[in-house]
Amino acid sequence: MPFNLISMRQIVESNSKASTIIAFSLIPLSGLATDIYIPSLPDMATAFQVGSVSIQQTLILFLISYGVIQFFAGSVLDSFGRYRIGLISLFVFAISNLFIIHTRSLEMIYAMRIVQGASTAFIVVGKRAFFVDVFTGEKQKHYTSLLTIVWATAPITAPFLGGFLQTSFGWTSNFYLLGAYGAVMLVLELIYGGETLRYPVAFKGKKIVEVYKKLIGTFDFSLGILVLGICYSMVMVFGMSVPFIVEHKYHLSPVITGYCALLSGLAMFFGGIIGKMLKKGSIPVNASRANGLQVTLILLFMVSSSLFNQLPLMMVFVVLIHMMVGLIYNLFFTYCVTRFPKNAGMASGITSGGSYMVTSVVSTAVLAIIHVTGEATLAIGYLILGVLAALVLLSIRINAKSGQKKLAIQA
């Protein structure tokens, strides 16, 4: 059996509670690794004497690496187990931050961000699969529906903390914190962790390709991933633009950038809670209603931005728009992750990896087309993404009415 999983320490009742807490603690790692240094982007651009686009690429490269590796991480984890690969990934993640801290080469930072994206992918995919491995029935559904809510704690806390770290200690302090976080979680895993995979799948290329074709070829699953990627692009476009709006246009401190990102994260968090609480209506119907409200808010944002240039007013619209993102994201993420329980690792990897790949491509395209410098250009970017999401949701609803599998599962 691959990696001798039978003899490896397993998750049992005595360590299941601690392991569950560790799993939930690692779910926000991807958001923490991207959002904590958002307030530092202008300072990093100055330190490396490059423009905003060059520094924004450190985020994009992480997203691409994170997305691509997640896409394939599931099959590796379903064959070779979660535990040892998770330990190696945590070690690599922790050490990579030291390279970023001590280099003065932007190319080295690019390389390390790619490494961090890959290691984070294995960690997060394994921890999402943990809840499918260990729990069943309503408990499984309850925990998996909490994943996006727990994940949203990173966008809430990371930029807020990063703003204070930037102001007090400079941009490298963010990566010191990331390295320490990775090291602490590695120690906790060594003490309390264990293997959760009970039935390893033989790592056979042809069979794996067939499973991938089956999952990706499932219409509702693939379009659900597309919705996730487009929706989260709104958050990423805002996140990569807000430090330059706050610090260049309004000449305010990175702490204010942190507060703005904090409000964005809170909006995602509460939107996810609303999505989890919805009991009536199918997923496409509820998501379409949320998207309709979202597009209406974006249009109002466009009108207000032509009349007023005020940061507080901009943040009111950002909060409301991102709340709808959180709602839609929770609905489709829960559905996609639990869609194929016999291939939990693959489904988790394809769901998150595919959505991040969509996010990296779409958000890069939007920022290439529109140079976001203020409220008006941000609103245009939102509108493009809102309309794209509406078109995909419409396709899902048309397909459901045509007699194919309906998304009947509730949030």
From TrEMBL:
Transmembrane segments: 21-38, 58-77, 84-102, 108-125, 146-169, 175-194, 215-235, 255-278, 290-308, 314-337, 349-370, 376-396
Superkingdom, natural source: Bacteria
Membrane topology: Multi-pass membrane protein
Compartments where found: Membrane
GO biological process, one term: xenobiotic detoxification by transmembrane export across the plasma membrane
Domain Major facilitator superfamily (MFS) profile: 19-404
UniProt cross-references to Pfam families, sorted A to Z: MFS_1 (PF07690)
Gene Ontology molecular functions: sodium:proton antiporter activity
GO cellular component, as recorded: plasma membrane
Alphabetically ordered keywords of this record: Membrane, Transmembrane, Transmembrane helix, Transport
Main location: membrane
Name of the molecule in the record: Predicted arabinose efflux permease, MFS family
